[in-house]
Amino acid sequence: MADELEKKFEYDTTVQIIEDQVKAILDQKVYDAKEVHVWSSEIVKRVLKQLHKQNKPFKYVVTCVIMQKNGAGLHTASTCYWDTKADGSCSYDYHSNKTMHAICTVFALHI
Amino acid sequence: SRKIFFLKGGTPQRRETMNEAGDGSDSKKDSVPYQIRPPFKRMFKPNQVKTLIRQVLEEELKDKSYEPVGEANAKITRNVAQAVKKRLKELPMDRYKICVQVVIGENKGAGVRMGCRCFWDAQTDRLAKEEYSNDELWAVCIAFGVYLY
Fold it and tell me: For this UniProt entry, what's an example GO CC term (chain A) (predicted)?
């Protein structure tokens, strides 16, 4: 039974991890073209570190898109060719900041 | 696999596996038990995948414009992702799991930054990305190939 639980990708804990890290870095910040590369690197680095701490037998891919709020629209889509029972992805959309949007996606692939 | 003892000049030599022919010939191809690295021909090749993605983006998004309201844009984004995945499945990389992510935005002068980081086996797993833009929209497509052991 424990083995079954180990195998699956956990959506809720992962979304919580992403939300915590994105909010920690982007809350109260104003979009700055010079700083944004630092923020996006920090977000992916921290999310990856937290995921790795869980010690699960997964490979991870973390992506983050940060966009200035300019009235322009944005769409993302993803599709994967994998083992539907063991692998999973989740995405978190951060929009509570007045000057920017951020979308962070995690793909977790079972080894 | 059977354990077989051959007598060669008096000393027994143990063979762990035997191929179909049963003649004891050592064909390494048949007795490889567990592949942990893909052979070069079956690797995910970033340059090849990059050109493939570029072709798909140009084909799908040429002369398309961004519709802010309605489902049209969501459908286009999904179609691009499905098209890239379909073409990647046709390539000879059979033990690879594939993730494709497509981001399409309206070309209104907003600043955007996209970053990614991966925790995987750097010798076997790769990514390929490509950007495309026209007057109305910009698009980024990134494909990850992760080897299944």
Answer: cytoplasm
Measured between CA atoms, how close is A55 to chain B, in angstroms? Answer: 12
CATH topology of domain B46-109+118-147: Ribosomal protein S3 C-terminal domain (3.30.1140)
pLDDT tens string for chain B (149 positions)? 555 555 555 554 444 444 444 444 444 555 567 778 888 888 889 999 999 999 999 998 888 888 877 788 889 999 999 999 999 999 988 889 999 999 999 888 888 899 999 999 999 999 999 999 888 889 999 999 999 88
Quick one: closest CA in A to B114, which residue? A65
SS3 per residue for chain B: CCCEEEEECCEEEEECCCCCCCCCCCCCCCCCCCCCCCCHHHCCCHHHHHHHHHHHHHHHHCCCCCCCCCCHHHHHHHHHHHHHHHHHHHCCCCCEEEEEEEEEEECCCCCEEEEEEEECCCCCCEEEEEEEECCCEEEEEEEEEEECC
Say which CATH class A2-110 falls into. alpha beta
ipTM of this complex: 0.73
Whether residue A40 and residue B114 make contact (CB cut-off 8 A), yes or no, is yes
The pTM assigned to this predicted structure is: 0.74
Cβ distance B116 to A77 less than 8 Å, yes or no, reads no
Nearest chain A Cα distance for residue B20, angstroms: 31
Q: How far is B16 from chain A (nearest CA, A)?
A: 28
